[in-house]
Known about the structure:
This protein is an alpha/beta fold.
Amino acid sequence: MRLYFKDVSMPQIPRYRTLDRHLRAAFGEKVQKITLDAGSTCPNRDGTIGTSGCTFCNAEGSGPGTGLGSLRDQWDRWRARYAAMPRLRRTRLFLGYIQSFTNTYGPASRLAAMLKELAALPGLVGACIGTRPDCLDEEKMALMADVPWTEFWLDTGVQTLNDATLVRIRRGHSARDAENALLLAHRFRVKTCVHLMAGLPGESVDDFLHTVRALAALPFAGIKIHNLYFPEGTAVDAERRRGIIVPLSREDYALAAARALTLIPSSVVVHRLCADPAPGELAAPDWAADKRATLDLIHAVLSYNDWWQGKACDCPDANPFA
């Protein structure tokens, strides 16, 4: 695959709808996300579906492992840390993100208690709840539809709509489960942020883009696109060490992410464009540790090709973000 760009220092004209710009438009000022850990588990860990988890999942359930104390304790520690940072010390508004494992798994009463605890956090103006497509139902959707925040996101790990890949990475759910979850959330008017991965085992970039095209026909309001990285001790890293899987290069990933943006409706909020490994967990590829360089390269690809979000989907004639 060729990378169609020349200069990563090109002017970075906005070419997609970032979460930061979306939140500034909604609240008129900076909103900082705080990652929280509710001590959840996962049906792919507790034996309901499996015990080993997805092949790419780290020991903290693809989260940072911040679950020390109550949500309020974690919240207060993060706010104190941000208050000591010069660029964030004046930040007043925060978005709580309960990330690790599957936070809608278990009885609806547990989710209700979690939402109640979130609502009591000082300075919180919205929330994101991480989950899987197969751990949602009407009772839980009704709870989330009734939250007091206009900025509420159901972060849903779809990863791919290729059933063969879902089996290979031990997801334990199907592409149809993902489609049904998005349709259910749409019916209850709960905003979903879909997580996708490029570079999954057995998938080419064209396979990844096929998932993006299929996803574009479904209702969703936000998206996170991740490069597959290889955490120490995971099944995917064991396959990498044996030469079964080869990580994408940064150049191939940047081109894949940029091409994906052109296929995503311009109304969708882009929450993330590359993975962000926790300190000490990354085995490979080395470039995944430098998030800024990866984002710069994606911007360069977009700029050089004069691409923008939705160009191949719903706004082909002019960049609506410039």
